[in-house]
Amino acid sequence: MDRNFARHFVLASLFFSGLAVAPAWGQFAGAPTSLAPLVRSVAPAVVGIAVTEAAGVAKTPRSAGIIAEAAGSGFIIRRDGMIVTNDHVIAGAQNITVTLNDGERYAARLVGADDLTDIAVIKITSSRKLTPARWGNSDKCLVGDWVLAAGNPFALGNSFTLGIISAEGRDIGDGPFEHFLQLDAPINPGNSGGPAFNMAGEVIGINSAIVSPSGGSVGIGFAIPSNSARRIVSALIANGSVARGWLGVAVADAPGDADDAAGGAEITGVEVGSPAAQAGLEVTDIVRSVDGKPVAGASGLTKAIASMTPGAKVVLGVSKNQHISYLPVIVDRRPVQFGE
Q1: pLDDT band at residue 116, thresholds of 50, 70 and 90?
Q2: Using an 8 Å Cβ cutoff, are 27 and 18 in contact?
């Protein structure tokens, strides 16, 4: 479930794993005097999530049946017990346990998950009155706005940290649907799936990843914007999954040179019987456009196709042997965990 990316630093999904110390929040002129009223109002919607999962195929008889445990966070969005979290928190889980802010625990079931956007919805059943969080409008967020990050760091229980939105539209190389909010509020392993609130107590993001050389907070965290998340959440509640377009190809960024200024996505593999194969796409072809719109590399093609409704007809501008061809393709439904 854990996602780690090694570049000049480690990009770590926010599971509980090991121990790290977050830098203390510095006080400065202009900081809020107290966020206690805000915290009291939003805390009932924040939950901790514990999962158990099979540790994989046993390599020896003694390792058979070993169970791995992980912790994450989430937030209640409906009074009937619907809870939003990250897909990587619950992926592969055999059992999911939700702990409310007051410590009461419930077994949860999976409603739906979308690996491409790392969003999942789970549900608990409770006779008590649950307090849902309110969605905010992430399009109105500005760099410099205050943000309150909530979650279950290191499985210690719900906690809250303060920071600002450091940047918008960040691409962290974690799939085609990027444009993360960058936060400097301290968030740590275990915060995955927790909400990021604005000062009105509205959810404007879902905490998903951090950049860190140690696995702990260094003030660079990323949240899925609420406006992107809400559409996915609605689809997951209604259908259990998100219907996405699919070509059936593996792609890479097209090699750039003076003749390839338009960019594009180079086909590196074609699934037998896929829409791409039926349309005549071949390895080394370069997709330059989709319905006349230029393709910005492999991720650009992935995003364009995945955003389409299965069954939609598109026209691909394709470079074949230095000649441009226009191929009509009917996109199919994207299987889980396959390419474009």
Answers
A1: confident
A2: no
